[in-house]
Amino acid sequence: MQATSSSSRLLSLPPSFLNFSSFFLLFGLVLLSLSVGVADFSWRGLWQWAIESLNIGQAVSTQTNNADMELMLLSRLPRTLAIILTGASLSVAGMILQVVLKNRFVDPSMVGATQSAGLGLLLVSLYLPASALFSKMLIATCCAVVGMILFMRLIKRLPPTDYLMVPLIGIVFGGIIEAITLFIAYETESLQMLSVWRFGDFSTILAGRYELLYLTGALAVMAYLLADKLTIVGLGDAIAINLGVNQKLVTWFVILTVAMISAVVVVTVGAIPFVGLVVPNIISRIMGDRLRRCLPAVALMGANLVLLCDIIGRSIRYPYEIPVATIFGVVGAVVFLWLLLRSPAS
User: Fold this and answer.
1) Which of 124, 193, 277, 314 is the most interior residue, by most CB within 10 Å?
2) Torsion 150-153-158-162 (CA) sign
3) Model confidence, pTM
């Protein structure tokens, strides 16, 4: 009874309150992210540059102010935007995957999507090294789709009530794919190249190297537009058929969306585990399972958490950086174990 009353109090929170608080937190974290870094940067110099630029007939006088603006446009702002897009899209991908598979313990890194995308990216880098970044993304997406299809075939015969077996099979399945990837990289002396994709890190993000992530934002918006159909599919096959929703078509949409988001993130910044697991579970305990209501909060919280972990990674060993995948991996592992241990009692 105590657990039930606690859940009801959480569900009574208005969605607008959570969204507004998350938005203002995101605004503060963005300002903090733009301010943190090894290179010299001054908000005062940037402000002076803006004022002098607006004054007609006056040239921008100081080289320092120009350097501040150049640093902002080439490095700080692209990195912050990349973090926001990555956190929001991975969280949305995890949410729609959990709803359609009817299991709260899965995310793109636990269904073989992230590992398969990394394998595809390694293969295309070895055999088609001169291919464009978009071509690498397409091949990585195809590999991620194949990996997800194999995973769904593996769990097809599991009983619907055995929720904990699905993530365990996903961890084993992802480990097998990762072992194959490591073996190929070892045999081809590509371990150093592979390490760039295995651990998500935003330190190399510059203007011109992150624009593919806007595709993940478009996919997240598309998922929001189809939120009602995704929610209906999550209620069960019989209900979806009675309401005229094509369950197979929606499932394929989720597979392609999750695979493409995973591939783009791996190609651009590397793998970041547990984002699609932790954020949807937190939001679903507060706001329920209706996607139309939850997805904005999921996207905002995902962006906030990844941005916060990146700021922590930049601050702990300043001027050196700890990859955001390491910081979030520690946080995500603790939350995942808590979810596993808490689930039987709920």
Assistant:
1) 277
2) positive
3) 0.86
